[in-house]
Design brief:
Layout lengths: L4 H12 L13 H11 L14 H17 L8 H4 L4 H18 L7 H4 L13 H17 L9 H52 L9 H10 L9 H7 L6
Helix pairs in contact: 2-3, 2-5, 7-8
Protein name: Calponin homology domain-containing protein
Subcellular location: Cytoplasm, Cytoskeleton
GO molecular function: microtubule plus-end binding
Length: 248
């Protein structure tokens, strides 16, 4: 068994001089990046976003952490998709593993966390897009407070609550838009890379048709490119257009 949640939070705050209150906040990836910076001292901390409040921003932090693991040959799978959901159990287990790794490899030298993170604040957003939660809370609190105002109690709670609820919906909508836009940019980025690889393979086969008969590397890459998950179906409106141009 590893340390308890309280022990891990205290360790993080002491090591990194942060204001973490619960292990779920490690789902942003920022604190984890700096834990490993305290070991290796080569994490690009200026690129780590401590004020991240969307899953897209969390993913950028975890990409930095994944690069660190790759560079230092750390044979540990980072369950990024689970961690960015900011669920307690997933983040607790990974933080416990991180603490064991730190205990084993921390060099014991003086570490200045504030200067390493280039002046970024010491607080990490609670978990996920917190503004919508706080707005909803303020709406719930407004109603009981106004209910004691006699004749006006039927209008004031609705006005206060309605305004807060509207603000919460706008905040949530903006967060969702930012997340969707970020995911679409990332999707297009990786799709363009896959398309470039596909075109390169096609050009190689056109130059040397014998490669298509060979079960070597190019054939294996093609198999991966054209593979689909079980149950996947090409949408009806695009089936006729797939041809040779759209292969994913």
């Amino acid at each position: 068994m590893g340390e308890s949640r309280q022990e891990l939070v205290a360790w993080l705050n002491n090591l990194l001089q942060l204001n973490v209150t619960k292990v779920e906040q490690c789902g942003t990836g920022a604190a984890l990046c700096q834990v490993f910076d305290s070991i290796f001292y080569d994490v690009p901390m200026s690129r780590v976003k401590f004020n991240a409040n969307t899953e897209y921003a969390y993913l950028q932090n975890f990409k930095i952490l994944q690069n660190v693991f790759t560079k230092h040959h750390i044979d540990k799978l980072i369950p990024i998709e689970s961690l960015v959901k900011c669920k307690m159990q997933d983040n607790l287990e990974f933080l416990q593993w991180s603490k064991r790794y730190w205990d084993q490899y921390f060099p014991g030298t003086d570490y200045d966390p504030i200067s390493r993170r280039k002046g970024q604040g010491g607080s990490i957003p609670a978990t996920g897009p917190t503004p919508r939660a706080s707005a909803s809370t303020s709406a719930r609190r407004a109603a009981p407070a106004a209910s004691n105002t006699g004749a006006s109690r039927t209008r004031t709670p609705l006005g206060a609550g309605g305004g807060a609820a509207s603000a919460a919906l706008k905040e949530e909508n903006n967060i969702l838009k930012e997340t969707v836009n970020g995911l679409e940019r990332e999707r297009d980025f990786y799709f363009s890379k896959l398309r470039d690889i596909e075109l390169l393979i096609q050009q190689s086969i056109e130059a040397d048709p014998e490669l298509e008969k060979d079960e070597g590397l190019l054939k294996q890459i093609q198999t991966i490119l054209y593979s689909t998950e079980e149950g996947f179906e090409i949408p009806a409106e695009t089936e006729g257009e797939a041809g040779e141009e759209e292969t994913f």
